Amino acid sequence: MVSVLIAPDKFKGSLSADDVALALERGLLEAAPEARVVRLPLADGGEGSVAAACAGRFSAEKVTVSGPTGRPVTAELAVHGRTVLIEAAAVCGLGVLPGGRKAPLTATSRGVGQALRHALASGADTIVLALGGVATTDGGAGLLQSLGATLAREDGTPIGPGGAGLAELHTADIAEARAALAGVDLVLATDVVNPLLGPTGTAAVYGPQKGATADGVRELDDALAGLVRRLRAGGVAQAARLADAPGAGAAGGLGHAGMLLGGRVCSGADYFLTLLGADEPLAASDFVVTGEGSLDEQSLSGKLPVALARRARRPGVAVHAVAGRCTLPRDRTAALFRSVQALTDLTDQDCARDSALSAHLLAQCGRSIADRWIGCRGTETGR
Question: Can you tell me the distance from the alpha carbon of 75 to that of 89, in angstroms, rounded to the nearest whole number?
Fold first, then answer.
């Protein structure tokens, strides 16, 4: 019997990782009903991280916190024992903006700090922050304030929300926030390597996606630079060094705030592969099917399908990829994937906005993989 591991990421805007896995499984089993299939929905630290964790051994727990504009949002955390996973996008993401109206200068990360407090109150000793997909560029100021940090204007009153409020910062004292997380393993899961400031920083690279104009980007970058200066003046000597560290610019500067609190940055893809227990089914499989919404140049920096393919080299398992679209030529993917299929090659319609069409085409891809690599008797594994 041929053993197949189906371990995809989500197809953003279309299907969750679990839905992708189900569609691929359906098609594959139609063509090879004798195959033994294990589904393992995955995530890389961005949107869908909680859903992927809860499809495994984690359980969901709801918490109501401040959203990016201050309105309450109810988000799900993933909990397993004393480990709590917080998905920043579920708290202050672009997807929870009221009416979808972007607020590049005023969106706040306060709710992420509130979720952290909830996790601490529950006795968590490991907290994973999945950093990605946020609407904020406040350098984590809202998070820090929620944990007791003093971020004040010249008259001593607390600064307002977002990067616009950060521009008024005069005094910064984060001692209480640091004390709140003493003894906790804070994991910052991200595959963003941008620093906090400058032309490759969080405002310049991600601000426009969040609605910032060219002037807004400059305002946000200046405000973040001011935060670093005020932190140094407040006794945080490593603030500038950490601002230059890879990942400091993740999630509008939440990466930098997490580092200030003692957090450690790790590859979201690799961390989630370990967290969700990918190694055991990987070693037991004859081949693997993975995928994501867009297989592109950014994928090669270590996003989930590539991280999985690299990990599969150890047990020598062939990996097949399915993507919503693929912009990489075959010579860029051949060392990683035995085959690559893209949904955009199968239709002229916009499947990224049509979940039913995406699921139908994924099932078609599953059948194609089974026909080509398993064969009618299940004897060809593609190793």
Answer: 9
